[in-house]
Amino acid sequence: MTGFLLSNLALAFASWRAAESFDDLDDPWARAATGLLAFQLGAAGLALLLALAGLLTPTAQMAGAGVLAVASLGLKRAGPAASAPLERADHLGVAVLVATLAVWALGPPLTGTELTYDDATYHAAIPAWMLTEGHFAIAPFTYQAYYPLQTELVSLWFMIPTHDLTHAGLGPLLHALLFATAGTALARHLGASTGSGAAFVATLLVSRRTLQGLHSTSAPDLCATANLVTALLFAMTVPGRLGALLFGVAAGAALSTKITTASALVLAAAWYAWQNRAQPARIGIAAGVGIALGCGWYVRNLVLTGNPLFPAALGPFEGPLDPETQYVSSLRPFLDPAHPRMVWNVVKTRLNWPTVLGIGALVGLGASIVAGWRRRRADLVLVGIIGILGILLLPRQPFSGTVNRPDQPLHALIRFVMPAVAMGLVGFAGAVGPSARGVFAGVALWALTLFGSTDLVRTRDFAALGLGIAVAVGLGALAVRGRAPGRRTVAALVLGVLLVLAARTPAKRRATILQLPRISLSAGNQVELFVAINRLKRGSVLAQVADVPVSNDHSVRALGMSLQHRYLAIDLDGTPLRPLHERWRDEPAGWWWRWGRAQSDGFLENLAQTDVDFLIVSTCNEVDTWPPVREKLLEHPERRIHASDCGEIWRAR
Does 471 have pLDDT greater than 70? Predict the structure, then answer.
């Protein structure tokens, strides 16, 4: 597709020119990370500007990217990045990383977008809803609309050219590439060889827990981890005011992805300020840029709600996510010393990346602190401390223990600790040092992790891995003294990838449409319902009620497989649902109250006064019971136009 190709080619060109304009970026891995970070911020920033201006069209997108591309022509080009020859063992580690990235590059980016439960409720639903509305707005159907939306804006950028979910899942590939390049560069700085750093970084990307993000539209935990590692890279390796600028940019990107990166960023900022205490200008640049880029979402919440962390209530800030709910949904209730078996269960589940990787990450955190102390490397110690702090703070995070349902058991969603695992792997590589044994240790851990992740690795992923190994072997055979690819080679590779993705758009759209009804294993068989929604008149306005509250429902379903409809979220009385910050004070106290509330008697009368054309009534989501309003609807059988085991469609009037 022309729009997809031209807009992304222009943005890639501008990002590449920006990365090549810095003389102090003499490491090819760090320069690649800079370009990828620029692309991520450019995509999210342009998507936000277009949404705020109400110009979510391919033409406006191409114009915006074109302006950046033209502006980048004014940047001077630095000399080529230096590249030391690779040792023989290093080729093995780099080959492992290339093979792993092949899984990410040849998976959903080429075969179709898949939706997880969280994608269907907000990761994909929010940008898809904004695309159908034509502008930026607070999505009233989910409290996650008040979360930082960095990754959702990246998804929106890739959705604009096709006006659907065809390319929505390209964000995780971008995050994986950023982590691969920045992580390898950081490990090299901490004392690892190139091959060792590459192998340890690849281990996280081949883990079962990280591969779950491969089949997602956003993977915010991977994005936050990649941005955090990039921030540490720039803080530790790039000198002068350029380092301050890039550190601030990456730190801002991390904070605008997840608030949970704040503690790590505070430590990194304190370390940076101490190292540059004689250069207050650098500290000011890093702090100013980081705050400007990272605090936008929290300032928005402060202006709208009076609480920068809305919906969470914290200290003097009020919100519907009350302290009691924060406690019962966190890990703290599961860490009662009086119940050691329960505590052990928490530890065991949190180590399961699979377990060999979890243990390896813990060993790496300790090894980085010990090695850093012995070598008098404060930066290596810092990496270990950041990881350990992340683990210690995890139990206090809402929903770190249970999912967003009342009376739920301990869950296994351990992606919240991904930054700590990344710190452990990078620190492990740095602690082992530049010898060949570091490469072999990294490759061994990678192989064991891959073996332990086979329950989530698809057949096609193994095929991609095999192809990646073949490509890596070929590159190794053709490499001359381990030199990094030149500018023309990189440009040809980027162009080739974009051409393939553009050419695959029709086939990828068909594959995406086939996969959308299969949102998750817990969503029941909703294929018939999706097909019926897709057959409704294009441009229809749909509302839905389900066996779960609106914030837990699959909101993206009402938009149609090609986002051809509009979705109007409705309240329990059938009126349009107001955004959470406008209504929460008028609602019953308690975070879970909607789980026990039925639709009001005047629901159908109020619904008839809205613009809604069709009402979706669904079950098979979580509770597997029909919403109470169905009893009223059954009194008007002539209005039902579709019925299946998991859902029905009724005319609203």
Answer: no
